[in-house]
Amino acid sequence: MRSNYKKLGSFIQQVSIKNSDLKIDNLLGVSITKKFISSIANTIGTDMSKYKVVKKNQFTYGSITSRNGDKISVALLEDDKAIVSTSYTVFEIINKDELLPEYLMMWFRRAEFDRYARYMSHGSTREAFGWDEMCDVELPVPSIEKQNEIVKEYHTITDRIKLNEQLSQKLEDTAQSIYKEWFVNFEFPDENGKPYKSSGGEMIYCDELDMEIPEIWDIDVIDNIVVCNSSTYNKEDKFENIKYLDTSNITNNKIYELKLLDINTDVIPSRAKRKVKHNSIIYSTIRPNLCHFGILKNPPKNMIVSTGFAVLDINKSKLFSEYVYMWLTSNERINYFQSKAEMSVSTYPSIKPEDLLETTIIVPSNDVLEKANFILEPLFNMQMENYKVSRLMENMRDILLSKMAIIKD
């Protein structure tokens, strides 16, 4: 053991207080993302008095690791009180003047800790990282002042990430609100600046959509608006490396990870084929209700996406990418595509690119499209830039956690 490392067992103790008075009904579980989550267990008829109480600044962890992949479920409670299943272990720090709960939680968030816990897990039927193994964990324990300094630096980064997430959500909400008002409720501003439909704007019935649309608007099919899967990666591109996006690494236009793969040394996934460009719409054809789709803004030239995506590029100037993207990702369209996917004969519920291309879309008048584009495109651009900043901050956070291993007082 390194000189500045100490065993965790000398700093922590188990806590086992039952909810015998039934005063607490906030039942929580612990996720592999190191957070408390609302329990989804059916507790009807369950004796809640047997559940364990967990208080603020106490830890809860699930010892079974064999079903968690490479993660261990452990979290620090930041609220007042809750209850958890008896399958969890609840523990606390004995002396907070020696070890800060938030500092220890930072150690638990390290990818290296997950790998260590998984490696040290044992058992015949189910592998577990038991209490003895938890107590044997070694970590650097600098002075309380140094711990406070590290925790403060960590919160500076994570608070910025949270602010970025809030801003991104506001941008998303604003875009959705405008889209709904203009293209669902048809209350776009008319030539007098008044809401079209409620101001008596003429509406006509559209058989294809089974609804009324503005008289001055038209309809078309997506196939006439976009080019699908137009460009494929091959050796002639001569990339030294590629930035690969799989379907699971984007949800609701938020990219979680781009895998950097070296062409000469790494195994390139067989599905890494689709090339993309600015304003490409990528739409996962597997389980549409999981919302693995997005609209790409200024992607790197060596960005390649999975063949699990349909890549759509606008080929007509009368419609813009943000409008087509929002049309295809509306709840109505997602539910329709999911219902088609569930009728497929594939291994997984999936649709074909043709299902997207055959979809009917409303084509607004040019003046409305120009006004909408002027508002919506900057919102999407800002949202994408915000995500890029968040990813940079997340990288800084991960570097800080990794550097905890070499902390000196």
Describe this structure in words.
- Helix content is 31%, strand content 22%.
- By secondary structure, it is of the alpha+beta class.
- Among the domains are: 5-141, Adenine-n6-DNA-methyltransferase TaqI, Chain A, domain 2; 218-363, Adenine-n6-DNA-methyltransferase TaqI, Chain A, domain 2, CATH 3.90.220.
- α4 runs antiparallel to α8 (366-403).
- The mean pLDDT is 93.
Secondary-structure blueprint of this entry?
Blueprint: E1 5-7, E2 12-14, E3 28-30, E4 36-38, E5 52-55, E6 59-62, E7 74-76, E8 81-84, E9 88-93, H1 101-108, H2 111-120, H3 131-135, E10 138-140, H4 144-183, E11 203-206, E12 211-214, E13 218-221, E14 226-228, E15 241-245, E16 250-251, E17 254-255, E18 259-262, E19 272-275, E20 281-284, E21 293-295, E22 303-306, E23 309-314, H5 321-328, H6 331-342, H7 353-357, E24 360-363, H8 366-403
Parallel strand pairs: 15-22
Antiparallel strand pairs: 1-10, 2-9, 3-4, 5-8, 6-7, 6-9, 11-12, 13-24, 14-23, 15-18, 16-17, 19-22, 20-21, 20-23
